[in-house]
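Progress note, sequence design subtask.
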C-alpha cells in the first residue's frame, strides 16, 4: 500500500550515508526522517549525533508517537546487550517495526571482536528488515543468522559540485596512505613501509602518508607517539612524504583525495567503506585489502591483507595495475539516478514493514 508519508527515526539521521539515501528534493519522497535529538551528554553542536539519544528506551517511550519506523545504521558501539534488548522491547511494545542496515560485520573501531558481534546476535534476528551493501555481506548474514538481507549499494558521498572538479594530470604519481587517528583496524605503518620500497622502482612515484596531529596529543583518543615517530622516520625517505595535520573538514578531505593518484586502504579488518565511495566519486583509484567486501562495493585493486596475513607482492602487483590503468569516474547524473532509486527502495521497505 502506498502511504502518503512514513516517519522514520534513523539512527543517526545526519550521517552522510543516511542523508544520501533520501532524494535531493524532499517533495520527491513520502519518507520524513526525524532530526537527530541532542545527545544526552549536553552537546549542542549542529550535526553532532554521537552518542545517539535514540538508543535510550526512555527516549523511545517519550517519542514513539513521532515516528512509524525505527531504522538503525550506526552508533551502538557503546550500547550494552541489555540496553539493546530494552530498546527492542520498548519498540515492540509500541508496535514499531525495526529496519537494520548492516554496514559492519566487524566493528572497525574495536581492537578485538566480541562486543559488536554480541549486539548483532540480538539485533539481526529481531529486525523486521535487514539491508546490507554487498552480496558477500548478505551471504554472511544468511549463513550466520539465517536472515535474507536486501542488498542496496552505497550512495554517493561527496556533494554534486565535486563531480565536475576532475583532477588535472600531474607528472607525479601520488600514492596516499592515511593513518587517520590510528583507528583500530588500520595498519598504516606496515603498508606504507612496503609501498615506499615498491615506489623506489618507479621514476615518478611518491608515497604520501597523512596522519592526524592528535597522534602526539596525550589527551586524544588517537594518541600513539610510537606510531607517530615511526611514520616521521619513514617520511624522511626520498620516496615518501609525511603530512601531519588536524582532522580535515569535508572540503579539505575531498581536495586531498582528489589530489591522489591512488588511495590505499591499510585495513586489517572491516566490511565496507565510505572512504572508498568518496574516492570513486572523485575519480581516485583505490587499493583495497582482501578483508571485507570492498571489491564488491566498488571497482578497486585488491591486495592480500587481513589480521593474520600481509603479502607485499600482491600490493606491488595491485599498485602496478593501478599505475597502468586510467581512473574511472562516475558522472553526477549516474550517482543522482542511483540516489533517487535508493530513496524509492527504502520507501518500499518501510511500507513493507508497516503492511506486514
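Output:
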Amino acid at each position: 500500500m502506498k502511504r502518503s508519508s512514513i516517519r522514520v527515526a534513523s539512527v543517526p539521521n545526519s550521517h552522510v550515508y543516511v542523508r544520501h539515501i533520501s532524494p535531493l528534493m524532499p517533495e520527491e519522497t513520502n519518507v520524513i526522517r526525524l532530526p537527530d535529538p541532542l545527545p544526552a551528554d549536553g552537546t549542542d553542536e549542529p550535526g553532532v549525533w554521537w552518542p545517539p539519544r535514540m538508543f535510550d528506551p526512555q527516549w523511545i517511550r517519550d517519542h514513539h508517537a513521532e515516528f512509524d519506523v525505527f531504522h538503525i545504521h550506526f552508533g551502538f558501539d557503546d550500547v550494552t546487550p541489555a540496553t539493546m534488548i530494552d530498546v527492542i522491547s520498548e519498540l515492540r511494545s509500541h508496535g514499531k517495526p525495526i529496519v537494520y542496515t548492516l554496514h559492519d560485520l566487524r566493528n572497525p573501531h574495536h581492537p578485538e571482536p566480541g562486543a559488536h558481534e554480541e549486539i548483532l546476535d540480538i539485533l539481526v534476528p529481531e529486525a523486521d528488515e535487514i539491508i546490507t551493501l554487498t552480496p558477500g555481506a548478505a551471504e554472511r548474514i544468511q549463513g550466520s543468522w539465517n536472515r535474507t538481507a536486501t542488498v542496496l549499494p552505497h550512495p554517493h558521498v561527496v556533494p554534486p559540485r565535486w563531480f565536475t572538479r576532475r583532477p588535472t594530470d600531474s607528472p607525479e604519481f601520488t600514492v596516499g596512505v592515511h593513518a587517520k587517528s590510528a583507528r583500530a583496524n588500520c595498519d598504516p605503518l606496515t603498508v606504507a613501509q612496503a609501498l615506499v620500497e615498491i615506489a623506489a622502482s618507479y621514476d615518478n612515484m611518491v608515497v604520501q602518508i597523512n596522519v592526524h596531529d592528535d597522534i602526539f596529543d596525550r589527551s586524544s583518543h588517537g594518541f600513539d607517539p610510537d606510531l607517530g615517530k615511526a611514520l616521521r622516520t619513514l617520511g624522511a625517505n626520498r620516496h615518501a612524504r609525511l603530512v601531519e595535520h588536524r582532522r580535515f573538514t569535508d572540503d579539505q578531505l575531498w581536495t586531498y583525495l582528489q589530489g591522489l593518484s591512488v588511495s590505499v586502504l591499510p585495513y586489517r579488518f572491516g566490511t565496507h567503506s565510505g572512504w572508498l565511495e568518496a574516492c570513486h566519486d572523485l575519480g581516485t583509484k583505490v587499493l583495497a585489502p582482501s578483508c571485507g567486501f570492498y571489491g564488491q562495493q566498488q571497482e578497486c585493486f585488491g591486495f592480500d591483507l587481513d589480521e593474520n596475513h600481509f603479502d607485499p607482492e600482491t600490493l606491488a602487483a595491485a599498485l602496478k595495475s593501478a599505475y597502468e590503468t586510467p581512473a574511472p569516474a562516475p558522472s553526477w547524473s549516474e550517482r543522482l539516478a542511483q540516489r533517487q532509486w535508493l530513496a524509492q527502495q527504502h520507501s518500499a521497505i518501510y511500507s513493507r514493514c508497516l503492511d506486514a
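The CA atoms of residues 160 and 332 lie 6 Å apart. Work on this subtask will continue into the next period as scheduled.
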